[in-house]
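Same chain as my last thread, 152 residues:
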Amino acid sequence: FDPPEGDWLLWPSAPRLRGRSDEDNSESPTPDKERAEFLHEGFLKLREQLETMPEGRSAGSSSSLNLETIESSERALVVLRRRTEKRLILLAGEEISPKELKNVGSEEMQRFLEEVGLDKVIGLERWRHDVAAALSKNAAELFGVKVSTSLR
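reply #2:
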């Protein structure tokens, strides 16, 4: 099953439904703002380095997601969070292993980094794992996905 893009299911008791549209991102959670600033600053440094190279490569991609401004970086992170939540809502009320939860976050993070053109950047490993784990853990809690603690 491949869920459709965009808003396709509303969880009415969700404590946070911010970033529902591109126009309404002023209420991004603080961690998203910090993550967006980190990504935006890194993106600018990467772009600056690539522009000085003789090959003339450029940072970024043709995706609708971009990191040109802090606001667009926040919107991109909202998209990442929504994609992770969309994958985990399908498992609401079920039990999954910690490895499965990690894989969901890692797969969505890899897709995100490819779309914004940062998938080959060295030095993002810790950040990408921490953010992917936090987003998938929060989504699992939000939708009542139980993460097993026993080995089977």
